[in-house]
Amino acid sequence: xxxxxxxxxxxxxxxxxxxxxxxxxxxxxxxxxxxxxxxxxxxxxxxxxxxxxxxxxxxxxxxxxxxxxxxxxxxxxxxxxxxxxxxxxxxxxxxxxxxxxxxxxxxxxxxxxxxxxxxxxxxxxxxxxxxxxxxxxxxxxxxxxxxxxxxxxxxxxxxxxxxxxxxxxxxxxxxxxxxxxxxxxxxxxxxxxxxxxxxxxxxxxxxxxxxxxxxxxxxxxxxxxxxxxxxxxxxxxxxxxxxxxxxxxxxxxxxxxxxxxxxxxxxxxxxxxxxxxxxxxxxxxxxxxxxxxxxxxxxxxxxxxxxxxxxxxxxxxxxxxxxxxxxxxxxxxxxxxxxxxxxxxxxxxxxxxxxxxxxxxxxxxxxxxxxxxxxxxxxxxxxxxxxxxxxxxxxxxxxxxxxxxxxxxxxxxxxxxxxxxxxxxxxxxxxxxx
Length: 434
Fold this sequence. Notes:
This protein is an alpha/beta fold. The chain has a single domain, classed as Rossmann fold, CATH 3.40.50.200. It has helices at residues 11-14, 26-32, 61-65, 68-72, 112-117, 122-132, 174-185, 202-213, 288-294, 303-320, 326-336, 356-361, 419-422; strands at residues 40-41, 81-86, 102-106, 151-156, 190-193, 195-196, 217-221, 242-247, 267-270, 274-278, 296-300, 414-415. The chain is globular and about 55 Å long.
């Protein structure tokens, strides 16, 4: 079926010229697969919300590790649009998101259970917050997104159904493929996919290829060890995709970070107990002080949350150098990463931990050096970015051709969501090591 792309006011973006999914069984999809549809506005008031976290615990260590204050002297992601293809993002009841900058769309029909229990938008909200949450909002924490100047189109393409035992149910990839096609039509700059599947679906691969051909950088989680994978993870292993592993504060791989001899991780980012936002409950007032006091936070672990940090870095890079191709962006991240202790590419962290400042400045690191001497690096003297013309973007007109993947050929999906998600995205304590 063709994908309808004219039902939403996305002309502002179109006018620019510019995790683990596992094969669970073929029979399950026939009875349970949702029907993919064109994107509709998501009623985020239906998202399940959480109370204020109270104890924030440790600071958002990913902020200091990535030296974001230095990076923001160069770029903030202004003028860049990222598609977050996930479980949906709540952009209300928070001072961290401006609804004009975070657009919430829905790719899957609402079920009776969704309306009764509320939409599980936790995972998508966390991912979006790590990319584009405004910095300097709450004096109790240094949390902010990597690219606070960027815009996000958040597509709800997964509903995270959980059975009575707490296990995630299988889902069709059709809504995700449809969301990719919608993102291409919206002329986004980056697509973040914090989900994986365990079989190489040709329709999914074709959608990713169309996005990259259109000049869109695709960033994907490499997968989690508890996701039931037994082979390479997709879409992280599709050609041209930036595959992201997760690291701890000492730059060693998180125990959750997945690897397989048949796949290659491109790069890594913090992904162990990183601070993120959860959907907040409706506050008694809408002034900023009340919104901040009412904010729900959580500490999360997994490659699902390392990937958006890399997507944020890509947004910074594209603001500064908008003419870079997806292949050039990937190469820049590889060349400027903080090298792992092992000889790169490491099975779990690839060429090392992403280094935003070095990527923006263009200071490469010899591939044989490991580890990188980041601890002894002096602050980099930065200059404001030069004004550049928006990069030419290939407009994809034959969107209807992207509809071939919507039957999904009996494949099933499973999100890379850590234990925090399965306990309802409640705020984790600082010593949570799940």
